[in-house]
Amino acid sequence: MTRHWTGYDRMAAHLEPAARRLADIAQPAVGVVVDVGSGSGNGLRASRAVGSAIVGLELSAQQLAVAATLGVPQVRGDAACLPFRSTSVAAVTSNFGVIFSPTVDACFAEIARVLRTDGRLVFTAWCDGGWPQAGLSCFAGHLHVHAPNFPVSLGAIDHTEAVLDAAGLVLDAAEEDLLTWECPDLDAAVETITTAAGGLRALRRRLELAGSWNAAASDFRLLLAERARSTAAGIAIDDAYVLYQAVPR
Question: How far, in Å, CA of 227 to CA of 129, rounded?
């Protein structure tokens, strides 16, 4: 029987390996570590596991409530106006969080402000050319609406270096890596991804209401088939991302 994943829990599990990498890099910091866009708590759990004094910053009250069960300090706030004193934070992590802000430049400037002179920013960003934007365009086409933009601009290292520099941060390292959806077959991949990824999940609901879901799902299945690779347990579909490290100038 195919297991049907719903809600953000499946996406959180998909992103967890990257959250652990960020926590491992930020862990040597002595002092407070702030996880920007802490969501349901992946980064909070990972940082707590390595012994960091972690604080979560999240704009969504719903996500804050989900992560409240962890017993980790959290603050509701906007990354473009961080509620922390200047030069008071040892490290900032953001696992596919700050990249979704409509004011990325302001967010990085705020991060530069709150970081100590010996502080470090560690964050992840999606690369361009993956299946998410293609999937959004596929679904939007069936609805005859404009496709929402998937945030991939910070996946370009040269561009990100320039953005960081303008904010008062120096790019220290950039490393490409993969996160992977592992599913028994393409039908399971369609079900898993479209019930886990927020943008696709929202468009799927609209397609179902419009009676267009089956046609859209068929096209999305073909899209995934072009990107899937075979594994011993079924198929794998990769998401490419970049892990960045930056320091105050």
Answer: 11
Are 125 and 239 in contact by the 8 Å Cβ rule? The answer is no
C-alpha to C-alpha distance for 9 and 15, rounded to whole angstroms: 10
CA 175 → CA 21, 34, 123, 166, 227, distances in Å? 11, 21, 11, 21, 22
Tell me what pLDDT residue 164 has: 98
Please check the confidence at residue 96 and state whether its pLDDT lies above 80: yes
pLDDT per residue as tens digits for the range 230-249: 999 999 999 999 999 999 99
- Segment 35-91, tens digit of pLDDT: 999 998 999 999 999 988 999 999 999 889 989 999 999 999 999 999 999 999 999
Q: How far apart are CA 91 and CA 52, in angstroms?
A: 10
Q: CB–CB of 136/200 below 8 Å?
A: yes
CA dist 13 and 176 (Å) reads: 20
Separation of alpha carbons 89 and 205, rounded Å: 41
Cα distance between residue 65 and residue 75, in whole Å: 11
